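Students often ask what a 'structure token' actually looks like in practice. Rather than answer in the abstract, let us consider o-succinylbenzoate synthase, a protein of 374 residues. Its sequence is given first.
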Amino acid sequence: MKLRGIELRRVSMPLVSPFRTSFGTQTKRDILLLKAVTDDAEGWGECVALADPLYSSEYVDSQVDVLRRFLLPKLASPEGQAAIARSGAAAVAGLLHPFKGQRMAKAAVEMAILDAELRGLGRSFGRELGAVADRVPSGVSVGIYDSVPQLLTVVQGFLDAGYVRIKLKIEPGWDLVPVAAVRERFGADVPLQVDANTAYTLRDARHLAKLDEFDLLLIEQPLEEEDVLGHAALARQMATPICLDESIVSAQTAAAAIALDACQIVNIKPGRVGGYLEARRIHDLAAAHGLAVWCGGMLETGIGRAANVALAALPGFTLPGDISASDRFYQTDITEPIVMADGHIAVPAGPGLGVTPIPEVLDAVTTSAEWIPF
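Now compare that with the structural description of the same chain:
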């Protein structure tokens, strides 16, 4: 495979409604897309970094900078070109390993090259990753609202739409009351989990343990990402399973968390861990230790959403992920919309991601584009 170059494209997409978490409120997405061009095909990648370094230390402008100055020149070097010609996308992680962090940028470029490679071979993302299902259950992430009645109205709408699992964002001051209200209104049969996005400390353990009465699937990332030992201590004080998100940035960190009994469940976000191939390694590691995994979301467009659906079709993904339909966040997606039917989303079966941007829609939301030849 001969890689000819990569395009960096910024797009701006408004959300259908504000999405509030413990670290801030989003009303639109500033998204970095990558297009890899080879002799045989074009492939797309999506960088999930946010506009500001709030979810992680990475942010969109930083990812553009590191791609331009370090990552893409490495891939364009004679060493990089030779490795990609031999091994395709599988060579990307090793080539970029000397550069610390920058996992979201690394994931995006690996994804674009892998998409181009698979399109050239006529193979799908799902087949390449090891998918065993042709559709996956669809859960939805519900943000923080100004009032409980407003929250209940939103949850009712998602249940009416057919989502099979509800995740509530929580923070200090917005936890026990909204969770209790959702349980009381919709009953114990609705699969329910909560996500704190690092908003608590171990001093809140007694308070968080009160969530046990609501029979939750899990509590996601209650403590700071570095506090793996704190999560292990919290796990001993709660019946609700602990799920790690921000703390898991590689298979190595996942192995350490598992060894320390810091989690019983792992949220796998390919962008957070450096790519879909590393995500598959974490899946395999968790499966070997008997831990459930599920696929998290970062408000992706149809490009990233299609790849996540393929990943979530692997056998160890036994819990519904945050893989909602396109219209959960965007009135108009840049690809053909990802749709939900009977609470599930079909795994794309076409070559590569199985979806491509619609040129006129993509152009309408593009704010800049830069071609970097190799």
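One point worth highlighting: The two ends are 13 Å apart (CA to CA). Ask yourself how you might have guessed this from the sequence alone, and why that guess would often be unreliable.
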